[in-house]
Amino acid sequence: MKFFYICQLGYWLHALPELYFQKAKKEDIPRQLVYIFLYLVHIAGAYILNLNRLGLVLLVLHYFVELLFHVSRLIYFSNENRQMGFTIWAVLYVIGRLLTLSLSVLTVGFGLSTVENQAFDLAAGNFNIFFVR
């Protein structure tokens, strides 16, 4: 799992200089920087706060929905009459976001607040305090 997180952080860090090498349009750069920064913050936050399993489940769910979007685009480019994939993607996008929100709130908000050990211990990697949650 550590290798997965290192690869994810490496991928999103490499996307920063890629903006320059791909000669992105100036109006697209701020949007892309926000997109990259949000990925980095969420992945690094899950890794640093020892929420590895939750982060992994949320990333797999998110990447599956993105994969479906890209497959729908490929099918659309091959034949413009086939737009059913976008309808399926739109439904799964909403379901995926609702699942992401539900899992996050249930795990962090309700699950971690009921654990007995709610002390900040850097050596043990326990960050289960109200401010971090």
Automatic annotation (TrEMBL):
Topology of the protein relative to the lipid bilayer: Multi-pass membrane protein
PROSITE patterns: TLC
Main localization of the protein described in the UniProt heading: endoplasmic reticulum
InterPro entries with a match to the protein in the record: TLC-dom, Translocation_assoc_membrane
Classification via Pfam families: TRAM_LAG1_CLN8 (PF03798)
TM ranges: 33-50, 56-76, 88-112
Keywords for the protein's UniProt record, in alphabetical order: Endoplasmic reticulum, Membrane, Protein transport, Translocation, Transmembrane, Transmembrane helix, Transport
Subcellular location: Endoplasmic reticulum membrane
Domain TLC: 1-133
Family membership noted in the UniProt record: Belongs to the TRAM family.
Protein name (database record): Translocating chain-associated membrane protein 1
